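Lecture notes, unit on protein representations.

Consider one protein chain, 180 amino acids long.
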Amino acid sequence: MAVKSQCKLDARIKSMDDVQTCLHYDDSYIGERGYFASDLSELSDLSGCSHDTLAQIISDGAGDDIFRTPHDVDYDNWGSRFFVPERLLRPVEKKYRPYTLAEWVDQHEIGEVIRFRNKYNEEFNVMYTGYVIDNGEDTQDIRTKGRIMLINIGYFLEELFKDYEICINGEWQPFGIIEE
């Protein structure tokens, strides 16, 4: 009978089988980077775990704290109970937000050809011809509602983010900027 874990794992961990334990581990991960935890509940958010290189797996007399970092080895510390190799994790998804007008103006030149598409995969190659700001708005103001002009049509950046993708360096991405 399989036992289900009550612990929710970080979204980057594909399967509980990817978590190395004293009962299930692979020596081939020595020298690789990954995440260390002393308690299974710590694996619910890998950002709180130690991120280091697996230097040693103690297979005799260490109990279940068998995964050691270089620091653990140097100072003869106990290891950790769990190790998740970085290469087994899902990639971190990039989160985007709409450009501010100031960011757009800083990254794009008037006269540049912008390649973008809508949700129906209809592609457009149009010239960026400038921007329009309403009275009282400032291109440096992060809340600005200014519009960019693509040929002779003014688009709000929030509208472009919601309904379109832009092609940057040959790759399609949301019409926005990566959140830091």
